[in-house]
Write a structure and sequence with these properties.
This protein is of the alpha+beta class. The protein is built from eight helices and four strands; from the N terminus they run ααβααβααβαβα. Strands 1-2-4-3 form a four-stranded antiparallel sheet, with helices on both faces. The structure holds flavin mononucleotide (FMN). The site of flavin mononucleotide has 12 residues, from strand 3.
Length: 201
């Protein structure tokens, strides 16, 4: 499947076959490609919580306005981020780079993020957005549908998954075999409504 076709076919699907189990090798393929997604300074600050426990799925569904896809999708990933990823042995993010690149970039990571909680959090959101889109497109190619979700109580889901204090949640992703088509695209804007040339105003 071409990337363009995956983009066109991906829709936010809300109804999944609750009996379908994603094969382990398919899940492995999905996640291996997720790990190739870009992050600033290559800090790979995303953290994926794969929710397999049915009771936990039920609890998250209750915290998500009873949205069925939370329980019925084959996979539920809570896309989290570690605000302190930049400070966790950052040399490993560049260990295979030429020495002069390591010498320049590894100290720069600390300079960029240290004592800047908003920047750390923004970076987490950026990284999760990018990896989330890759997950949805690769899932599409592998024959799966998906639904990105932020319709849930973040504090409640944080409690359920034992989110560490220095982590955040970006959104959840339900992935499975869709059993009901998404409704027609509800109202995509024309390009000229969302793009300006060079400057606003
Ligand atoms: C960050 C994010 C959060 C979303 N949260 C939910 C959600 O909680 N429940 C839901 O059914 N759809 C959710 N959606 C799906 C959007 O409603 C959907 O992507 C949008 O209407 C465009 O439709 P399409 O994805 O089928 O093209 C979410 C989408 C995004 C990107």
């Amino acid at each position: 499947m071409q990337v363009t076709e995956a983009v066109q076919r991906r829709r936010a699907v809300k109804w999944f076959d609750p009996d379908h189990r994603m094969p382990d090798e398919t899940f492995a393929t999905l996640m291996q490609h997720a790990l190739l997604s870009p992050t600033a300074f290559n800090i790979q600050n995303w953290r994926f919580v794969r929710v397999t426990d049915p009771a936990q799925r039920r609890a998250i569904r209750a915290a998500a306005w009873d949205q069925a896809q939370v329980e019925e999708a084959s996979e539920l990933l809570v896309l989290c981020f570690d605000n302190n990823a930049w400070d966790r042995e950052p040399a490993r993010y560049w260990r295979l780079a030429p020495q002069e690149v390591q010498d320049f970039l590894v100290p720069a990571i600390g300079e960029y993020y240290r004592d800047k909680p908003q920047v750390q959090r923004d970076e987490g959101m950026r990284s999760c957005g990018l990896v989330g889109q890759n997950l949805m497109l690769v899932a599409q190619q592998l024959g799966y549908d998906s639904c990105p979700m932020d319709g849930f109580d973040y504090a409640a889901v944080g409690d359920i998954i034992g989110l560490p204090d220095d982590h955040g949640i970006a959104f959840m992703l339900a992935i499975g075999k869709g059993v009901k088509e998404a409704w027609p695209r509800p109202g995509q804007l024309a390009l000229d409504a969302v793009m300006v040339e060079n400057r606003f105003g």
